[in-house]
Amino acid sequence: MKNLILFIVTFGITTLGIEFFLKTTRITPPTLKYYNPVYGSLNRPNIDYYKAVEGLYVGKTNYDGRFRENYSKRKDDKKVLRILLMGDSFVEGIDVFSHNHFARYMEEILGKKLNRKVEIVNFGRGNCSIQASSYYFIDYISKQYDADIVLYFTEWRDIFNIGNGNGYPSTCFLLDSSKNLTPAYTWKKSPEYAIHKKLTANPILKYYESSAYFRLLYRAVARIKITGMPIMTFGKFAGIQKEQSYVSYTSNDSISLLTQKLYDTVNHYNQGQVIWIVRNKPYNAPSIIEFMKRKNFQYVALSDTFDDNNIKGTNIDAYFFKASGAYGGHWNNDGHKTMGYFLSNRIYNNLASYNTPNYEK
Amino acid sequence: MFINLLILCFFKYFNFFIDSFQLAFGHKLDFLHIHVLLPVGISFYTFQSLSYTFDIYREKLLPTKDTLDYCLFVGVFPHMVSGPIVKAKLILPQLATLEKPVKKDFLTGFSLITVGMFQKVLIGDTVAKYVNHIFADPTYYSSSELFFSLIMFTIQIYADFSGYSNIARGSAKLFGIDLIDNFNQPYLSANITDFWRRWHISLSEWLREYVYIWWLDGNRISKARTYINLMLTMLIGGFWHGANWTFIVWGGMHGVGLAVHKWVMTSTKNVVINNKLVSGFLTFISSVSTFFFVVLAWLFFRSPDFKTAWFYLDRMLVNRVSSTMTKDLAIIAVTYAGAVLLIDVVENRMKSHEFLNDISPALRYGIAIPIWIAVIWYMYTVGIPAPFIYFQF
What is the pTM of this model? Predict the structure, then answer.
């Protein structure tokens, strides 16, 4: 009996010690996400560090966006040029310190060019397609936040009607029987949310999302589900995925009706303020550009960005992290720097043509 | 001996010699470059084979008549790729009388592997993410970020290599084979000489016995020659690590450190300090100085080239750039350092790396099970653990 008690106490103390270690070193910090009854999964407030599989993902988040302790929803200083960023993990800034994110370069470069303060509010959402984020971006961000310009990042995968298949636990728009956009709360019926509800109903387990141990288990199970137990256990002996290469790929598929409606709706809600940033390198869907042209949307294609802004004299791989199969290879420090300069120049050169109410060049 | 060194030179140093010749004399000799894979662990088993040859030549060991025993001595898997560098005279007698492992061997092996996995997987691999990220392109980071990345590399290389050594020793113990301790809380060293008695012990003992004492005659010729011998030994030690001038500078720095320490100790051997407070203070200053000297030397060890190392020094010390993330990185670095220190202090108090074996089963498994849970879960989040740093040597 004495030994059993000693074992339990030692086990508990060691577990707590490792929990502290995992959390403080940010190996497995508490989750960034929480469930909002209307929008589903959203970022928690004031999470300041997070480490992803490929490398680091460092910076401060507030309730919705990143990099600032506090974003005020309404602009209180008319002299400030405010730009909202909406997009996926590239925009969120996975793998770079916040001071190396392209938003910071834009604030500095564009601010100097315009001789006024530029504030970038970053709503990039990792592991999330435009469709999964659509309801949150359109119904919440676009309504709540004042902005002079909205940069909305899109890419080739967005053309498909992924619908509920995106797997991201948040409210998204789907097409109803009349082919109109309608919010879908299917995430509330997902197995993941069911587990969440079950655990949070338990007085002890309800803190599971704050526990590094549980988070580690969660990530392990997720990776096993994605990659498979044999590969995760035996690695290359079981045929581990090779590093992703950046051979260009062009999809000749046309844009789904859902995507067209989403693009239209985003533009409608942010009338005249949206600049679509089409990330079409190394993967490309020409149908997006065709659509933008046809609709007379303001857009910037990134196809030649890295070539034209070749700061290292090397090929495109120099701007991306060598990727694991799971994360797809995001912009590295050089990539973000290039993006910062490129977007600043484009916005500066074209700003007069946009409907920016507080802009005086 | 000649064949052993020839193989090592061919695989590891041939291109380096060509490049250095080109750099010095400007001749274009690129066509001479050889494109072959470096055999894993070649530096380790070459030195092990050399120890066999040297010991027989010096009549410290009789040649083994069993070829299988010799092959096993060189190729036994736990130590083959990254040491410890075992000497023939310690292993061959064990192999000759090897018996079936007993329960105590299993417990010792389990204890060493558990601590080693914690060091390697949870400390070494995870801190490497910060280190690799910043060393990949330091121009993007502030002075404090560079400083903490260097501190974190200091932690990484210790956790990685001592973790490996513990796993290697533990694995060997499962077969009833004893390998020597490779680390003995090196960052708690009182001075640089002490550091080399505690860091990569198998290599430093090899260099001391075969290079410094046997080949160079150690301190038996003159004072000046002693300092030169120390310097030469450490330069060879640096060169052993890799075909890059940064490793040679790293070795040279330690050589200078050892020579200076030897000179200070010789010059002050008649000085007696009776005041415990003063003596303790001097030891503390000496320990801290040693630690930061070792950290500084690691900069050259980790940097891919001198340009990176100079950039680090310049940004950390001269053209400083501030950061808003100093506090965050400091907390992370201190936590990692705390974990390493905790293991060191426990090992120091218990006077053993196998301390889990020396405590009651309730305590042993109460500590080991949570460690293994975290290690296994973490390994499943990353798929393939990072290779050991010393695999490249």
Answer: 0.86
